[in-house]
Amino acid sequence: MTFRVEKDTLGEVRVPADAYYGAQTVRAVENFPISGLRPHPALVRATVLVKMCAARANMATGRLDSRLGDAIVRAADECLAGAFDAHFVVDPFQAGAGTSHNMNVNEVLANRANELLGEERGRYAPVHPNDHVNMAQSTNDVFPTAMRLAALRVAGDLRPALEGLVAALRKKSAEFDGILKSGRTHLQDAVPIRLGQEFEAWAVALEKNLAAIEGAVPGLAELGIGGTAAGTGMNAEPAYIDLVVAELARETGFPLVRGANLVERMQNMDPFVALSSALKGLAVNLARIANDLRLLSSGPRTGLAEIALPALQPGSSIMPGKVNPVMAEVTDMVAFQVMGADTTIMLAAQAGQLELNVMMPVIAFNLLFSLEILKNTVPKLADACIAGITADRERCLRYLEQSVGLATVLAPYIGYAAAAEVAKESTATGRSIRQIVEDRQLLSAGRLAEILDPFPLTSPGVPGATHQAENTTQGGDNNAGRR
User: Are residues 286 and 165 in contact, defined by beta-carbon separation less than 8 angstroms?
Assistant: First the structure.
């Protein structure tokens, strides 16, 4: 590898000759070999957008020479097209506030702009990374603005994915609505439920999670760009602030507005905490649903096996024929990661001091990573798992007939105590609730069939209630069925 020598305020630095980044980026790479990761592409794109829109705003105020500004804008366009992705190299775990990331972008744009003007990389003339690309800006207002734009973009990708999962669950809800099964509470037999009702409940829960995520989005649209170093706007003309916000809104299509208080925008990480919290809520429900899928599909011979998940890959290196619920398992892992990331974001958000939160890089990394893995997992769960689920109607019905939860249905007619005795005998002997009630002559066969008609059991009301008043007047609940 050949190198060029650059100078910054600390001295000389050897930079790879073909690199579009410069001395400060090299120092950051050497100082922070932490994770081996690169910045999230959405964060890079958002930062480049800020630089492009800032250059346009600075040209509009007359502060930036149009020849230099046009070169910066052209360089930014090329970056947005992916031409220089390999040159954004600073580890997400870096110096506080994101200075290294900001300078990485400044250097790439400056070097490419100078090339477009016929100059060499590394000389930073006539376009300088600080004086021109970073004009009227500070890392302290650029980085949180880029965080907001990146989060808005990736959250926008999560929305249709989550809507697709809700639709897939709702489709299965309709398909399975006629399948009766035993409910379970505390993992014990409970009253009957329809399989479709379980799927519909999952869909409703995820719709509420989507609403919570949507509710957190508007806070991201209030920008602190123009606040520069401390939110006071020093070195940024008032006209520039309004212009750069307008340019960013035009480029992104987001309803961006200038923050009402730029000092507050600099200090307060609440919008990121709110979005992360909503993502955690989604992760909790995804994990809960994934675990229910694993339980309901457990088996195929020694578990519940009321449903079967699509077979996606062999499940064991030693047990032939074994197939595991892999999409449910990966969903759990992703959910746990998102929950942990939310804790990191919460701790980092409260760790800011005075005019700046220097923990922004770790907030950005965890928030964007959570959004990324959720938007990738959710459609796979929908398409590779939910869409292919089948149900074992006969097994569901067999469990229902064997369930001691049916005793609950009888309580309004034979009383709680008598129903409990029936349930205990069923548990001890393995005989069904129906058999025991018939043998004890607690209810007539016809009345029992009416009360245990399965579909009314899964809707609000008291099963068989059309005759309850008559039976009650003939001797009370405990004797109603004996007449």
Answer: no
